[in-house]
Amino acid sequence: xxxxxxxxxxxxxxxxxxxxxxxxxxxxxxxxxxxxxxxxxxxxxxxxxxxxxxxxxxxxxxxxxxxxxxxxxxxxxxxxxxxxxxxxxxxxxxxxxxxxxxxxxxxxxxxxxxxxxxxxxxxxxxxxxxxxxxxxxxxxxxxxxxxxxxxxxxxxxxxxxxxxxxxxxxxxxxxxxxxxxxxxxxxxxxxxxxxxxxxxxxxxxxxxxxxxxxxxxxxxxxxxxxxxxxxxxxxxxxxxxxxxxxxxxxxxxxxxxxxxxxxxxxxxxxxxxxxxxxxxxxxxxxxxxxxxxxxxxxxxxxxxxxxxxxxxxxxxxxxxxxxxxx
Length: 326
Ligand code: FPP
Ligand code: MG
Hints:
With 326 residues, this protein is mostly helical. It has one domain: Orthogonal Bundle (Farnesyl Diphosphate Synthase). The chain has 17 helices and 2 strands. Strands 1-2 form a two-stranded antiparallel ribbon. α10 runs antiparallel to α16. The two termini are 17 Å apart. The structure holds farnesyl diphosphate and magnesium ion. The site of farnesyl diphosphate has 15 residues, from α5, α8 and α9. Magnesium ion binds next to α5.
C-alpha cells in the first residue's frame, strides 16, 4: 500500500467526519445552487489540507471534532480558490470533472466561489470567539489573493526571477497549507516552538507541492492529473520548470522559449520544443530535487514534536508531496 493510502487509513474516521461536515455545511435549499456547489465540493481531490489539520492536531495531542470543522473550513477555502483560479486560467477540467465555468459559465463560477467563502465565514463565526482561526484565515486568504494578483500581473514578464516566483507560490499555495498545520496545532497546544514547527513544515511542503504541481503540468497525462496538461504552457504562464530552463539554456533556445510561450504559437510545436529542452537540461530531475529539499526542510522542522504515528505520517506526507503523480 502506498504511504499516502496508509496515512488516509490511519485517520479514516476523521476524514469521513470531514466529508460529512463539508456536505452538511455547504448544502443550499435552492436546488441549482446546491447542484453547482456540490459539483465542486464533492469533486474528489486528495484532501491534503484536511489531512494536515487532523495530523497537526493529533501530533499536538488533540483528538476532538473541532479539527473536522477546521479541516472543512480550509478545504472550502481551497475549493473556492480553485473555482476562481479556473476562471482566471480558463481551465476546462479540474479533479477529473468539467470546471464550473465550462459547465455553467463565469458568472456561476465566481458566485459559487463567493458562496463558499460566505459559508467559511459562517462556520468560523459559529466557533469560539477567542480562537485564533479567524485571524489566521483572514491573513491567509489575503496572502492567497495577493499571490494570485502578483502572478497575474507578472504573467507577461519573461524575466521573472526564481526568487520572485518562489515568493508568489509561497503566498498562493504555501500560506493555506501552512495555515492548515497551524490551525490543527492550535487545537492541541499553545507551545510556541511546536506551533512554529508545524507552520514551517506547512510552508515548506506548500512550496514543494507547487513546484511538483508545475512539473506535473508538463509530465503527467490529463486522465491521471484530472486537469488538462500543458495548461500552464498554453496560457504562456511562467512556472518553476520554465524559469529554471530559461536560466540554463543558451541564447537561441531562450529566444525560442519566449516565442513558444506566446499562446498564439502552434501548440504541438510549443510542446515539442519544451519537451526537448527539458530533456536536454534535465529540468524535471532538477525541479524534483529542489522540491525534495523543501520536503526535507519540512521534515527537519518536525523534530521538536513527539515521535508518535501522526508525526511519522506527516514525515511521509512530505515525501508523498514530491513523489505523487497527480
Ligand atoms: C492554483 O494554482 C491556485 C492557487 C493555489 C490559489 C488560487 C488563489 C486565488 C484564486 C485567490 C483567491 C483565493 C481566495 C481564497 C479568495 P495553479 O493554477 O498553479 O494550479 P492548477 O494547475 O491546479 O490550476
Ligand atoms: Mg490554475
